[in-house]
UniProtKB/TrEMBL annotation:
UniProt organism field: Actinomadura keratinilytica
Limits of the AMP-dependent synthetase/ligase domain: 11-91
Taxonomic superkingdom: Bacteria
Pfam families linked: AMP-binding
Record-given protein name: TIGR03089 family protein
Amino acid sequence: MTEIGPVELLRRRVDDDPSRPLVTFYDDGTGERVELSARTFDNWVAKTANLLVDGLGAQPGDRAVLMLPAHWQTAVWLMACWSAGVVAEPVPMPGSEPPGAGPEAEPAARSGPYILAAAGEVLDTVIDRTDAEEIVGLSLHALGGPLPDCPPGVLDYAVEVRAYGDRFAPAPSVTPDRPALTLPGRHVTKTTLSGAGVAYEAQAAAEKWGLDAGDRILVDMPFTTLDGVLCGLVAPLASGASVIIQRNVDEAAIDRRVILEHVTAVAGLSGWNDATGSVRRLL
């Protein structure tokens, strides 16, 4: 059987059901709600992959550190990295983890050169201590606005990405067996999966959780763990389901959101999870 990766899962989704929502995003801190169909999500992925390759000179096997919160643009960046053959390394944002709860936010310098994609809110914290070759700042603005104050040497994603095409052709060497995702671990230990490995884990998780094309999964998890990547993007792709990503969650809004969004499963929600910490089915 030919190996497939997350990129192939997205291609299947766009071919089979381009108009149905794939990713919905809520930020309860701003009142933002964004919904992207598979086609629209794919267009954002293509633009970002073109930015990586044509704008930043990324080559297959290069590394992109993603210092980003749970957000639809984080999902786009993960898939854009995989499309371009770039190894995505999501790391916690400074201050997002309690002391001693996880790894340092910055990768070790000995890991080699990398591109850093960071949320605008943490740029001032990391810009003076990063050794990234290129820094991309994301405003994460609801209406696609630029960074309010873009530091020198930082590329403003919201401004730059608009100029790139919404179709992307990967290099022939970009195949599912290449390294695709590096996840932080305790101390210096890290785990790297190939694209095929990510897709395999997603298909296994979708089967374990009983997800199918009729499901809508509400997720409150960072993309810095394998479960977060699976729940927040790849398992919905593998199963045909759609995902609702939350940030700055207002607990009082959850009950209404579950009803309005026709949620059938939840992951990472305080008080809602399965006793094992797995996805909990509601219907």
